[in-house]
Amino acid sequence: MVGMLPLPMADLSLMGKAFYVLGTYGAIAAVGLGSLFLSLKDFRPLPQDWFTLRPNFGAILWGLGGYLVALPLVVLVSLVNQEIWQGSGGSNPLLSLALDSQNWLVLGIFFFTAAVLAPVFEEIIFRGFLLPALTRYFPVSVAIILSSLLFAIAHLNVSEILPLFVLGSILGLVYSRSRNLLSSMILHSLWNSGTLLSLFILGGS
Predict the structure, then answer these.
(1) DSSP state of 158
(2) Domain boundaries in the chain?
């Protein structure tokens, strides 16, 4: 979702674009989370399985294990996806800017946005709220599928819906098994971090 933010390409320096991405996504996250929690005030106390976040070693293990499962599966699906779209998918302006940058502060801002801010915000929305809400009306497996589809669509990149759906499904499975939002946040952060790091290394080679 971070990479799909509209960027004012003409008027800002690379540093300006980095702060624009951070500020815009931060504002979206603040408004989104604020609206969500205000809309839920009439339903308090909330069910115990909503927004469950417990810092413990088990959350780290679930996050790492989920990443090890997600990595080969999403890469495989992405390869198939490339054959389907034949390289005609949309580009990611955030990643393009990060690759072009030789400024460590700019890279740090992009990394913080993608690897910290985005996982926290998106996991609260999709796994903390949406998935448990859907399980009130559907079996857990169906709720994971539906929330993963909405997660993929929310990134506004049609050509990436399939791999994002697979990633979302693994995130949902990790959360539903661990009952800990921190687990899916760690997995999500590892995924975004690995993507940025691999593209940066490939771009510099």
Answers:
(1) G
(2) 2-204
